[in-house]
From TrEMBL:
Species in which this protein is naturally found: Marinomonas balearica
Protein's name according to its UniProt entry: TetR family transcriptional regulator
Keyword Cell membrane tagged: no
The entry's DNA-binding region: 29-48
Transmembrane segments: none
InterPro entries: Homeodomain-like_sf (IPR009057), HTH_TetR (IPR001647), Tet_transcr_reg_TetR-rel_C_sf (IPR036271), TetR_C (IPR011075)
Top-level taxon of origin: Bacteria
GO molecular function terms noted in the UniProt entry: DNA binding
Ranges for domain HTH tetR-type: 6-66
Signal peptide extent: none
Keywords on record: DNA-binding, Transcription, Transcription regulation
Keyword DNA-binding among UniProt keywords: yes
Length: 198
């Protein structure tokens, strides 16, 4: 007799998100999903369409949380806040988390082929969201005369995405924390150079 489902959707998504985040999609077995989420194999297939469907729902949840919390005060247009945000990526409490799990979106880039339209759609959503936040910060800073008026806002937003990706990759590849921090500080220094001197 099959076991009854003993967990709700939100709890299952949170548990599966941590599992996929730590282990990756390919390395995570259905048995592990059952053990960590409380879902039965039947429920995984019936409700989510299998392991892949559960992963996509998990990635959606990750994106929704990112859109709620990452640079949520972007409308203030404070370049110092943005610079500090980059520096905090290399803080003592953030580095161990990044070292353990990284970014679920960036991990997905490594795991899935470019031809995977469903995953790529979510990756593009993440980058477009981040780019929009950067554009909002820079635009507001220029309008408030807190940033140099001749900034190429769209191009610099793309540069910031590249910096974010680079910093994240350095965190995972580093041999010493100081190496990662130097890259985060360099990004912050660049951002501060766009401010109008007092």
């Amino acid at each position: 007799m099959s076991r009854k489902r003993n967990t709700d959707h939100e709890t299952a998504i949170i548990a599966s998100k941590r599992l996929f985040w730590q282990r990756g999609y390919a390395a995570t077995s259905t048995r592990e999903i059952e053990e960590k989420t409380g879902l039965t194999r039947f429920t995984i297939q019936k409700t989510y369409g299998g392991k892949r469907g559960l992963f996509l729902d998990t990635l959606d949840n990750y994106l929704e949380n990112a859109e709620t919390h990452i640079l949520r005060d972007a409308e203030t247009g404070d370049l110092e806040d943005l610079a500090c945000w980059f520096e905090r990526l290399a803080s003592n409490d953030q580095i161990p988390r990044i070292d353990e799990m990284g970014c679920l979106v960036l991990n997905s880039i490594d795991e899935f082929e470019r031809e995977d339209s469903e995953v790529n759609e979510r990756i593009e959503r993440y980058f477009k969201f981040i780019e929009k936040r950067f554009v909002n910060i820079l635009s507001t800073a220029v309008a408030a005369k807190n940033a140099q008026p001749n900034l190429d806002i769209q191009s610099l937003a793309v540069v910031l995405i590249d910096l974010l990706l680079g910093v994240q990759m350095v965190f995972r590849a580093r041999t010493e924390d100081s190496f990662a921090r130097s890259h985060a500080r360099a990004a912050a220094t660049l951002i501060r150079s766009w401010k109008i001197a007092d």
